[in-house]
Amino acid sequence: MTDDSSAQHRTLLYGRRRGRPLRQHRTSLIEDLLPRLQLDPPADGGPLDPSTLFATPKRDLWFEVGFGGGEHLAEQAASNPDIGFIGCEPFINGVAGLLQHVEARDLTANLRICPDDARPILDALPEASVGRLFVLFADPWPKLRHAERRFVGPANLPRIARVLKDGAELRLATDDPQLCRWMLEHAWRWPELEWLATSAADWRVPPADWVQTRYEQKALEAGRVPVYLRFRRRKR
User: Fold this and answer.
1) Residues of the chain scoring pLDDT < 50
2) CB burial string 77-115: b at 16+ within 10 A, e below
3) Is 106 annotated as catalytic?
4) Which overall architecture, per CATH, does domain 17-233 show?
5) What is the pTM of this model?
6) Could you tell me whether strands 227-233 and 193-195 are parallel, antiparallel, or unpaired per DSSP bridges?
7) How far apart are CA 50 and CA 34, in angstroms?
8) Structural domain boundaries of the chain?
């Protein structure tokens, strides 16, 4: 099987690639700003060297899978200029939203964007290279036949555990009870991960540096209760 056909057969983890038509300014950001920040997996299938991604050295590398409208990723990047960030999001409207934050807050120095599937980027990163990884309010894929599309599960937990440094943190959040049970069941049982909860408050109250997104705000307004799950990568 060729690389192209392998990519075509890779389990689809996302739905639409594009929503409503982009306004002119957002289109210009996609055309002009994104190429400066875009990160693609190496064409030859080789590794990615995190030290080459940014013009100045960064003390750590954080990674967000499916950044939605980009509010969380942009705020984290603005608050931590000494950390390098990679965000992956196949939905082009979300990418345009993040680029608006990047432009407004001048975040080009420590943020790189993959407007596609996160898995090839994770596979290209060296082992133990990521200090924190976020999967926040992912698509719950509620139908049983689509369960394998949920990012946090048996297919991707080995990827996550491989790239996380010893002691690094995996942060998960959802307002969907079914997805919460699924993620907790699989991540809690994964031998390389340690659930950090010691009381109910640990999954009911967001972390101290939490950034609320528009999606989370709408969920709260609709009466849905978010759950926050934190795991630590065990020592190798």
Assistant:
1) 1-9, 13-16
2) bbebeebbbbbbbbbbbbbbbbbbbbeeeebeebbbbbb
3) no
4) 3-Layer(aba) Sandwich (3.40)
5) 0.90
6) antiparallel
7) 19
8) 17-233
